[in-house]
Inverse folding.
């Protein structure tokens, strides 16, 4: 692949001004791709983590399988999945979701296992059934660790979404790819794509941090 | 055999044909040279990044300062999209008139490799129990000796985990460099193939398969070599403890 | 009578998979309604395992447990546990819930209406000695002693007839522990709950229990009797060595002062004449005189200071140690060896009842 040799000036503010709506659309697309992957990933991870917690023997195989999915580069995953699902949303999401599984499952399991045994035994002794106990006692207490994993997964996925531009999607990654493939290289687009995706990652990270704090009021109180 | 099965067989045979073409393995665009290129594009940045990040991370950890920097580095490192980084690097090198085949990718990958190595090196040293360090100091070891003989060995599992995470990440990002030029190791097959549409679907799939195998093999090689590289007492830790220590990134 | 037996263990056995030997081997035990029973023994004797089999945290391998006339296996485990209070050493308060919510746990599980729950929480806070303003706090903000009080309140919330306690004061510092033991015993006396209490501390068991079950490895019941009887007459060498040293003194700690014969001693009313005072001194052959104002005890006076002055003019010195009627003989012995007078003075609300000296205490022991 050979690129054009000429580049436009480094940053063209007027272009930004003229294309605000395109930029906005791409940002929304980026968020959509990210959000979908995280929601599906979280749902799958909770299910798999619950399985691993109920039958500890399954933890190793689950971790091994999701570990493989995590190790294989997203680009390769797109290409491997494409013969069956073509180029588009589904292929992208399969890769993005599979990326989140390892870290989310690991953090959910670690969070639940990190609940002090005394608390678990007290809950048992009071007459909580297993399901109730997991939902109402152990899960809330595991939230800090789970939210930490969710933050990492979110930031990672935002970065990966840019690669889906090679599939014709890409959200903000579109500007990055487009910028380098034009007949005259267009740095402005590339810079906009990179800066906005970093900004998006930073904002979502802070939002999750705040949400995590709100959901766990007891961690904010200090010992008397 | 039904229609789906037919199409599948057709596809598989296309892929097999691709692999067995003349010059596919050893030729100038062949699998072997591209694999070597792929590995080199990962190893060189790692060496540079390690040479920069390990000493600084270890030293800051020893002095127990710079926690804010360590946190900032890991967060920023995660937020910057590797794809965007490589492309940006390409743009700058293009404007400087340098060939895009090699250095833009290396520079971007060095930047990518630094955060996990730095953060883990820092965490590894910082979490060595203070009593252990003080005991060594009390016995008369110099600061440097403490680092070499106590802190680094004790923290070696976490340091190695950071190197491993970084290497896998870099290895996985090398293919994206194919967007810039005819480099990108095995990634070239995939990127080139995507751009060419359905006709090159065998090449795309084969390239992806090779990439997947390479990264999995590298990961496996790393975990096996942990046995050789880690000191005896640390190796005896239960795997969960090592993983817990390694999950800093 | 069968109805008076609250908990009956019949030949209960527990075998943990993959572990050689039986944790509990055929233990049979009965706990009466309203009785406070302690399970004591060295580590590995199966006392905690036995306790946990009562509320089925651990399921017995064989044997049966009958609670208030019903087989414990008859209903689902979680239902059984909602009718048994459970207090553990690690306390186990839910960190993510306020104190009030922690206490309200079982009532909420049982579906009580909120007003009833709120009333009950306030009542319990008062019972275990927690200030009202603590109810809105989180466990992390409380000290260990306060947390364990909450643990007890939480266990009592649904007013269960039975309370199981597994070394509940083990994680608390010694000064607080003594106070908690005292309060816990008073609480049980007031509420009349049936309590099974596990401890490895024999002194705690002696202090708290109506009856003590001394267990050996494998849940072997070596002796099951009141602490006084066990101390007076250990069944075998194991029990004897487990009771530790100073067995006689420990037993004295359980015997109340009222069991002994109180003497009146050299005590005169402050309005008596100096001559009568000196006569009392000689009669008792002591060098001190106790002064009363009617029935109220004023103190004592050194005998050598007695002259022709009226008794009212003397400054009575207070006794170093005074006991009440429910003090133990051990405290009396301590008073005897501590004060100048070599006696233990028994006073109830300022009213003088009598005194004990070494002879009267010794007489009580040898009985």
């Amino acid at each position: 692949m050979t690129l054009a040799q000429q580049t436009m000036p480094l940053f063209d503010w007027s272009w930004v001004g003229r294309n605000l709506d395109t930029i906005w659309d791409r940002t929304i697309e980026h968020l959509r791709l990210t959000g979908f992957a995280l929601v599906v990933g979280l749902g799958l991870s909770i299910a798999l983590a619950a399985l691993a917690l109920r039958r500890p023997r399954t933890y190793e195989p689950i971790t091994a399988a999701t570990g493989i999915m995590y190790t294989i580069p997203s680009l390769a995953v797109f290409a491997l999945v494409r013969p069956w699902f073509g180029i588009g949303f589904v292929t992208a999401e399969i890769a993005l979701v599979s990326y989140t599984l390892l870290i989310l499952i690991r953090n959910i399991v670690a969070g639940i296992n990190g609940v002090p045994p005394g608390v678990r035994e007290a809950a048992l002794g009071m007459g909580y059934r297993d399901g109730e106990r997991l939902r109402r006692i152990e899960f809330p207490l595991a939230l800090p660790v789970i939210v930490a994993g969710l933050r990492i997964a979110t930031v990672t996925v935002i970065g990966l979404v840019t690669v889906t531009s090679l599939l014709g999607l890409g959200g903000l990654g579109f500007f990055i790819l487009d910028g380098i493939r034009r007949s005259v290289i267009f740095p402005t687009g590339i810079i906009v794509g990179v800066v906005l995706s970093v900004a998006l990652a930073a904002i979502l990270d802070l939002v999750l941090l705040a949400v995590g704090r709100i959901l766990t009021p007891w961690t904010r109180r200090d010992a008397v | 055999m039904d229609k789906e099965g037919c199409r599948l067989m057709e596809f598989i045979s296309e892929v097999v044909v691709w692999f067995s073409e003349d010059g596919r393995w050893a030729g100038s665009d062949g699998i072997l040279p591209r694999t070597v290129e792929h590995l080199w594009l990962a190893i060189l940045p790692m060496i540079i990044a390690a040479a920069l990040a390990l000493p600084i991370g270890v030293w800051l950890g020893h002095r127990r300062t710079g926690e804010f920097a360590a946190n900032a580095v890991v967060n920023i490192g995660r937020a910057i999209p590797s794809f965007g980084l490589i492309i940006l690097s390409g743009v700058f090198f293009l404007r400087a008139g340098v060939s895009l085949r090699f250095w833009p990718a290396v520079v971007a990958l060095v930047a990518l490799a630094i955060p996990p190595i730095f953060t883990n090196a820092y965490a590894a040293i910082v979490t060595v129990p203070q009593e252990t360090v003080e005991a060594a100091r009390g016995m008369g070891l110099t600061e440097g000796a403490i680092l070499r003989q106590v802190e680094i060995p004790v923290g070696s599992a976490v340091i190695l985990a950071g190197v491993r995470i970084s290497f896998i990440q870099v290895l996985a990002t090398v293919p994206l460099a194919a967007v810039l030029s005819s480099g990108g190791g095995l990634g070239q097959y995939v990127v080139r193939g995507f751009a060419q549409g359905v006709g090159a679907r065998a090449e795309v799939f084969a390239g992806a398969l090779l990439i997947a195998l390479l990264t999995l093999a590298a990961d496996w090689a790393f975990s096996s070599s942990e046995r050789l590289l880690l000191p005896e007492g640390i190796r005896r830790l239960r795997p969960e403890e090592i993983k817990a220590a390694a999950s800093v990134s | 009578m069968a109805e008076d037996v609250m908990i009956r263990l019949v030949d209960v056995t527990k075998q943990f998979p993959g572990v050689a030997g039986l944790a509990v081997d055929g233990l049979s035990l009965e706990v009466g309604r309203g009785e406070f029973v302690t399970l004591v023994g060295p580590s590995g004797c199966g006392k905690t395992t036995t306790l946990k089999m009562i509320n089925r945290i651990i399921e017995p391998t064989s044997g049966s447990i009958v609670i208030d006339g019903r087989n414990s296996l008859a209903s689902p485990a979680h239902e059984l546990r909602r009718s048994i209070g459970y207090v553990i050493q690690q306390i186990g308060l839910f960190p993510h819930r306020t104190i009030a919510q922690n206490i309200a746990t079982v009532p909420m599980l049982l579906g009580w209406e909120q007003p009833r729950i709120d009333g009950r929480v306030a009542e319990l806070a008062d019972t275990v000695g927690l200030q009202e303003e603590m109810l809105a706090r989180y466990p992390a903000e409380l000290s260990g002693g306060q947390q364990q009080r909450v643990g007890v309140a939480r266990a009592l919330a649904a007013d269960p007839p039975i309370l199981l306690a597994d070394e509940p004061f083990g994680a608390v510092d010694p000064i607080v522990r003594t106070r908690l033991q005292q309060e816990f015993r008073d609480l049980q006396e007031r509420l009349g709950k049936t309590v099974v209490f596990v401890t490895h501390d024999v002194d705690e068991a002696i202090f708290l229990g109506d009856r003590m079950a001394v267990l050996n490895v494998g849940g072997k019941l070596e002796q099951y009797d009141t602490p006084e009887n066990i101390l007076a007459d250990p069944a075998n060498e194991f029990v004897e060595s487990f009771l530790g040293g100073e067995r006689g003194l420990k037993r004295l700690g359980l015997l109340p002062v009222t069991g002994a014969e109180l003497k009146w001693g050299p005590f005169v009313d402050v309005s008596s004449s100096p001559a009568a005072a000196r006569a009392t001194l000689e009669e008792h052959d002591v060098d001190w005189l106790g002064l009363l104002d009617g029935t109220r005890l004023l103190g004592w006076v050194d005998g050598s200071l007695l002259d022709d002055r009226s008794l009212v003019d003397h400054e009575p010195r207070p006794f170093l140690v005074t006991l009440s009627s429910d003090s133990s003989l051990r405290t009396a012995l301590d008073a005897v060896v501590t004060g100048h007078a070599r006696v233990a003075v028994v006073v109830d609300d300022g009213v003088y009842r009598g005194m004990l000296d070494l002879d009267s205490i010794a007489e009580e022991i040898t009985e």
